[in-house]
Amino acid sequence: MFQATAYSGDKVKDYELLLKQLTALSEDETDTIAILSNASALLNQFLDQINWVGFYLWKDGELVLGPFQGLPACIRIEYGKGVCGTAIKEGRTQRVADVLAFPGHIACDSASQSEIVVPLYSNSDIYGVLDIDSPIKNRFDETDQMYLEKFASEIERLVQP
Questions:
Q1: Which of 8, 11, 5, 26 minimizes the C-alpha distance to 145?
Q2: What is the Cα–Cα distance from 66 to 126, expressed in whole angstroms?
Q3: Which has the least CB within 10 A, 1, 11, 84, 146?
Q4: Contacts of 47 (CB under 8 A, 6+ apart)
Q5: How far apart are alpha carbons 161 and 159 in whole angstroms?
């Protein structure tokens, strides 16, 4: 059984604990939707000042909404469109301090002010993205990016066929 953890306030230490929690929750699970659902819930419980966290999965040449926490979201995102589609197109994390300044930003939630999107791969093929939005500008820093990329790598390992 999972119990909410009181994090220490030390960002690095807390992210390390988050990674351990993800592995402990998912290590013996084989169902991808179950893993991604718990991963989004875990991030939602861990991260402060966010309004949406979840996954878009690559299907038939576009990103399709997967497990998430937050308000209803855009269901499909085209390759190269918005922050999520750009992360896939460029093959790298997009950390956007002000989404209104991002060309082609897709406003699924008008409260979102900043965003981080980490691409996910399976055997070198596009798998999807981890997408996190915040209602404040410049919410995500280098530490967040580094650890969310580690979180995404653990997701990739856990969902390998």
A1: 11
A2: 15
A3: 1
A4: 53, 132
A5: 6
pLDDT digits (tens, 9 = 90+) for 13-42: 999 999 999 999 998 999 999 999 999 999
Tell me the average pLDDT across 36-57: 96
Burial label for 103, CB within 10 Å (0-12, 13-18, 19+), is exposed
Spatial separation of the C-alpha atoms in residues 35 and 78, rounded to whole Å: 24
pLDDT, mean over the chain: 92
To 10 degrees, what angle do helices 11-26 and 32-46 make?
160
* CA–CA distances in Å: residue 155 to residues 33, 49, 108, 139, 159: 11, 23, 24, 23, 6
The answer to whether residues 119 and 77 touch, using CB atoms and an 8 Å cutoff, is no
Q: What is the pLDDT of residues 76-99, one digit of tens each?
A: 999 999 999 999 999 999 999 999
